[in-house]
Design goal:
It comes from Cellulomonas gilvus (strain ATCC 13127 / NRRL B-14078). InterPro entries: SpoIID/LytB (IPR013486), SpoIID/LytB_N (IPR013693). This is SpoIID/LytB domain protein. With about 625 residues, this protein is mainly beta. About 10% of the residues lie in helices and about 40% in strands. It folds into four domains: about 10-230, SoxY domain (Immunoglobulin-like, Sandwich), CATH 2.60.40; about 240-245 and about 540-610, no CATH class; about 265-285 and about 405-445 and about 460-505, no CATH class; about 290-405, Sandwich (Tumour Suppressor Smad4). The strands form eleven sheets. Strands 26-25-30-32-33-23-34 form a seven-stranded mixed sheet, with no helix packed on it. Strands 1, 2, 4, 5 and 8 form a five-stranded antiparallel sheet that branches. Strands 3-10-9-6-7 form a five-stranded mixed sheet, with no helix packed on it. Helix 1 (about 255-260) runs antiparallel to helix 4 (about 425-440) and helix 2 (about 265-275) packs across helix 4.
Length: about 625
Amino acid sequence: MRPRISALVALVTLVLAGFAAPAAAATTTGVYASAVATTTAGARVPVAVSWVSKDAPVTGRANLQKRSGSSWVHVRQFAVVDGVARTWVDPSVTTTYRIRASSASAPSGTVTTGAAGTSRSVTVTVVTSALKAGAPHLAQTSAVLDGTRAPLTVAWTYRGAKVTGAVNLQRSSGSGWVHVRRVSVVDGVASVTGTATGTSLFRLRAVSSDVPGLVTAHPYGTSEEVRLVPGGAVAPASFTVVGAGYGHGVGMSQYGAYGMALDGAGPTTILQHYYTGATLARTATKQLVRVQVRTGTSATTITSASGKARIRVNGTVATEVAAGTPVTIAPVSGKLRVTVGARTWTTSSTTSRVHVEWQNTRYWTGSTSADVTVKVSGADADAYRWGRLEVSNLSGSVNVVDVVQLGDEYLYGLAEVPSSWPANALRAQVVAARSYAWADLGSVSSGCDCHLYDDTRDQVFRGWDKVAEPYYGARWKSAVDATISAEGSSVLTTAGGTRIKAFFFSSSGGRTENSEDVWSAALPYARSVDDRWSKDPDVNPNWRWTATVSQASMRSAFGLPDVATVAVVSRTAGGSADVVRATSTSGATASMSGQSFRSRFGLRGAWISSVSG
């Protein structure tokens, strides 16, 4: 998510003090930066920084400083990776800034002191005209070109709103600027390619916009500059992917809900924020849902704790067993065989199920212990407390399903968020999860003899484990109970009463996704919405992440002989990568969707900010 751009400003370039623009044949060394030069008080102004040493991109750290009287005061230190960086300033009054190099990790021999490590100063002037506060923003993916071409991205907002209009791309020529091409900006974004035969500067000039009265005349309609340095294309050994968020991005952001709850939002406010047009309704608490908890095994053993279990075969009780007595169930000739000690029972047909019940449930009472549970060998949960187990022979393997009430028993075992979270975030999660399951209560799937899987294919169900958590388990159970009344259990529907399959995920890169940008169907309740809480490092552990992809993996994924650069060339309404393009050292290109890129490399999310080699 880019910082808000709230200044339509004259361009000011921060260049190396005393350094003249080199001829095309010369090598380039220095720290360069630029920023729009006019802003409104307190608004963030992006500063684009590039750092090269003899045409090689520098990786290191640099300091932003501002003038105070006759001295320079430190503002912040930031990282420069592969020759580029982004930082920002937000002056309340007219202020002068400069960049000082701090340290360089590559290439060796990079000078960081004296004139070679200090940019010229730039003054950012604070103005009061709001209509002079919305310049287009130009960014590049690398300070050094692979060959002579580099992808450039355009972002244009005015007071947080996306601008549609036209801008001119210009290139520096001598002491002036020449027109390269006109670029159409739609909903605040566009992309264009910069081509340079020597070290070149590019900028944008606003032409027209759909914002009434927005000033597009120079200097207010001029972006920051981008410096491109030609270099030989290379295929790096690996790539570093920088991104944010975790999950598919559709529906409710769980860390976003957490952040909203910390800000004081109630569960209804949270749910109606993330599910567009949703309303709360009630459904019967006692509806049954079938959850697959074990499959694909040649046998399973079921054992009760703190009370008896009983086994029904062919519709009648075959045996009752004491706590701790193992019951083994295995497939045989399309049927099931139950073994307890030396005794065995076999189902009468290939469609017959074995039912396992235990005391102090809806199916059977009688134990002095309040919490009788059963354990299923090989299952992900340690124990199950509610419902009953139904065991079937599914394609020659044992398949175990827990049959529980949708309104409460299923939700008690749902392990999707930490139980230590604020109560309002927990309640929002309960209603979203119940709504998701409620939408699936149609026919039973023949592939699992279930409505839902117990993992991330649907929702993570851990039976007794969730409520049994010390202290926090009781908080989760209370959150579930708080969503149930005499009228039924809370669920989400559309305004017309249609069930909502309330998708949710961990966190985003600042906005959730439209459903059609991730899958295919455009769901009216799954629209892209603000998820700024996911960008807060105090809220979301995945507000920023990095991943490494090898050259071999990258070239294999894109089907190219090698890969020199990878760039996000378009984005979804939610800000994630829509199309990712790879370019080889020969200039050949190949593209894939952002979701495919995420899946291919096992990335946490598709909100990719950069891919560098």
